[in-house]
Amino acid sequence: MNDNGDILIIDDDEKLRALLTEYLEGYGFGVRTLPSGDGAVDVVRSAPPGLVILDVMMPGRNGLDVLRDIRGHSRVPVIMLTAKGEDTDRIVGLELGADDYLPKPFNPRELLARIKAVLRRLDAPAAEGQVPAQRPVPLLEAGGLTLNLARQVLLAQGAEVELSATEFRLLRVLMENPDTAMTRDELMTLAWDRDFSAYDRSIDVHISKLRSLLRSYPAHARRIRTVWGTGYLFVGAE
Length: 238
Known about the structure:
Layout: E1 7-10, H1 14-25, E2 31-34, H2 40-46, E3 51-55, H3 63-71, E4 78-83, H4 87-96, E5 100-104, H5 108-120, E6 139-142, E7 145-148, E8 153-156, E9 159-162, H6 165-176, E10 182-183, H7 184-192, H8 202-214, E11 224-227, E12 231-234
Parallel strand pairs: 1-2, 1-3, 3-4, 4-5
Antiparallel strand pairs: 6-7, 7-8, 8-9, 10-12, 11-12
Helix pairs in contact: 3-4, 4-8, 6-7, 6-8
DNA-binding region: 137-236
Organism: Pseudodesulfovibrio alkaliphilus
Keywords: DNA-binding, Phosphoprotein, Transcription, Transcription regulation, Two-component regulatory system
């Protein structure tokens, strides 16, 4: 089994579940599947997977409802499967906390690449309260904010702020390059390890989510700024 844990596939397509199970197990992943969103949150809470692959279009509770429920209890990475051309589903999914998306139909090799990209930056966090004495907690500090790289949480004005895997990766890139205007494709390449598409505005959705989180802390409400014609800048100078 892959060190990052098993993968939970939630999709009503029985053939697709079987195909992906065989394919991903061939690359060392443990795979569990569910034919619908019913009970998905209970499964995620009782036996947390390393990553969830979640179809949007399912009978009964659709994938967006399931994602909303999952995000109420867990920050597990989630890759959404969306109908080709359904931009609304993709954008809503990202706003709800999805880490990536893939339109159907897709090549299993591309899904595998997306899975690896999402997991690549997810070093297994230390168990609750168990940080090895010989290994100091890795911290990234910029602009008065501190990012705990082991636990993947943000420390702002004495409070801990939980981040999704995608929010963590994006904020890390910004904080590693303070006071530097970065284009969207630079951010996409560094945070997602894949090229940016001129028609893919998901980076703006993630920036909006980070700004909403920081708005709760007045000293950092304008920490991430838009550089018109370029992209975004993390203000590091106090």
